[in-house]
Amino acid sequence: MLTPTVYVVDDDEGSRNSIECLFTLHGILTRTFESAQQFLEISDIQPVGCLVTDLNMPGMSGMELFEKTREVGWDIPAIIITAFGDVSSCAGALKAGVLDYLEKPVLPETLIARVRECLQSSEQKHNAILAQEASEKKLKSLTNKESEVLELLVQGQSMKTIASDFGTSFQAVSRHRQRILEKIGVEGDVSLARWVLDHRRAIGVPSPAVITSSS
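Request: output the structure for the sequence above.
Response:
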């Protein structure tokens, strides 16, 4: 699992070292970069943590760097710091999705607090992605018939009704159901339905209509 890290991007070496020292003293894992391009070359995988970048840098600015992270599909929270801030620049950054826009000199306690918020948010998103991937893996392990049975169980169909619809025996459907429960890792139809609905809610898939069964 990736460790949440603060990525500091600043062309001023003194500023980079100062920020790194501050974070290290507070037990926060930190990596520093002297340019936006250097940061973008770290990995093809979305970094987990927080981006702290200076606004005005040679080549690509801090704001341009933030926009680039979105272009490549990275959803890493970002804080922009600058000694030359203005209302228009601040409003534009926040509107674009930057978590915070801080003017130098930044109070250490303010920066630490905001960074910890970023790290927590990034870690939660990363864990949610891992959970979704694990759920997808479980669903893909089901056979086509098990997937069909799962869908009907989540809709509220009874095994007797499913057996009748499939033209098979109750025992056959019961075996499918048991294998589904084992592969998903839950016990009982209610827990199974909750698991499926939670997964679909997380990935934005509409839930199926629940059918009331009398049997």
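The domain at 5-132 is CATH 3.40.50.2300 (Rossmann fold).
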